[in-house]
Amino acid sequence: YHYPKQLCHPYYSAAMKEILEAFDKPQNKAKMQEIEQEANSDLVKLLQERLPFAAEIQKEVIKCHGFSDDGDQGSLTFTHAIKLFEKEDEEIASMAADLKMKFIPPLPHPPLFVPRDVT
């Protein structure tokens, strides 16, 4: 992977904060809520709409930090670097978990399987 030279730990932390702040902008929050309402309880539809929108929000921020906005390469490079830093830094790990929730909503837990004696 090619990482922008100026990006080291503090820059990734700042970029993560900016990405999370971007999700909290009123227009982005409204769009995320709209996506959830339109999908209703259809998880596939929710992910089909939510993932690209979340990726676009992230891409807009990281391109300001020197990452490519040509296709998905910049996002992949950024995500790979975050994976490395989150092992070393609790704050980045926490922000990475928060960011993951922006992309993939909490999934409902299936009912627990209770084995029955069928003999």
Automatic annotation (TrEMBL):
Record GO cellular component, one term: cytoplasm
Name recorded for this polypeptide: Protein C10
Alphabetical UniProt keywords: Cytoplasm
PANTHER family: PROTEIN C10
Origin: domain of life: Eukaryota
Keyword Phosphoprotein: no
Primary localisation category: cytoplasm
Organism from which the protein derives: Pocillopora damicornis (Cauliflower coral)
